[in-house]
Amino acid sequence: MTALTPLPLLTALQDxxxxxxxPDAVRxxxxxxxxxxxxxxxxxxxxxxxxxxxxxxxxxASIETVIAVTxxxxxxxPAVPVPPDSGPSERxxxxxxxxxxxxxxxxxxxxxxxxxxxxxxxxxxxTHREPDPEATAMIMYxxxxxxxxxxxxxxxxxxxxxxxxxxxxxxxxxxxxxVHGLPLFHVHGLILGVVGALRHGSPIVHTVRPTPExxxxxxxxxxxxxxxxxxxxxxxxxxxxxxTSARLLVSGSAPLPVPLFERIVKLTGLTPIERYGMSxxxxxxxxxxxxxxxxxxxGSPIRGVRTRLLDQSGNPVPHDGETVGRLExxxxxxxxxxxxxxxxxxxxxxxDGWFKTGDIAAIDxxxxxRIVGRESxxxxxxxxxxxxAGEVEQALLNHPEVREAAVIGVPDHDLGQxxxxxxxxxxxxDGALPxxxxxxxxxxxxxxxxxxxxxxxxxxxxKVQKKILIDDHLTKR
Length: 477
Fold this sequence. Notes:
The protein is an alpha/beta fold. It has 15 helices and 24 strands. Helix content is 29%, strand content 26%.
């Protein structure tokens, strides 16, 4: 496969030349800037931070965060987005581990770094040289199942390649208006939802919070959301109907339940785009703006990306849509390693340069991918069978009285692991649900235990935190 040579990031962020009279390039809540105003404000930030080894960004849902990140890209200084709701110990770890020399944002008592406030009214006409494409653009911190968050080093070329691959897959253009209300410290909300829109010239409307009412009022053509956002929108029929004029509705960061997929189609007339990726790989798989969009499937590799499935012995898995294997990824969007952690980086890569995602997937004859779940928590070995938690969850979600479901495996002296389902909904018959699953899946895949809960623990991107459920089960058995 020929390597991509994407347009450099700064070249793609050129001023429109319309000045303050141009259309809004970005709006966050009630604050808006034209492209010329954004570049001039970001240039003022770049002047302040030039030469720093890395800069921590107080990644609030604000126009200041957009200016700060753009300024870092202009200055060629790696941006380290810091979640505004991070606790003192997490924040201290990120600042120390990243080696950030400046805090971009309002000063805080618990931060000893020199602070540079971001002024949305500041303007500079200074120009900045395009850094080497392999230079680090961002260091995104991601949590694993153990230990402190790891710094994922993302180069300018990896980000450019990923965004250009998605533009091709989604026909993303300056004619689009992108709407989302996702956090500005993750790949989905920040890299796709800010840098992507700026790179492709599409205006951004960030709603601060992803409420159904805000999405409905934004009048966009391209919407980003996580399943929790889409679920809330579908619960507000008027808001969902208001999206019928959009071009694409994109869902990611967590699996989109099939019943929710179908409800989106029913209420909006639009078939959602599903995509898959990680901080370490950016977005690598997606369904297309033209082509099949199948519920529960996240599409095929974008341009510049390759995937493969291997069994436990390292042998290729057949692409029959049913057989599952360990998903590995290679290509232009891969990260440059975990910051200061060569051992963990080496552990995550194969000898021939593929990244081990830790996810279990299936691929069909057309190359469409279905993610079964995380190998660490979603591949359950029960009674000699390998059961993917994701397919049991989807079966449960087909029950009309189940709104949410999360399936885990817990130690069992007889089966090895016992399938346990945590369920949110109106059905409280713990005998009916296993029978319901057994009518659609093999009987050995039925949950042996049902726990009814009011809510499932989720992170900021809507992913269920299964380790919390496992710990809960082990402490309350």
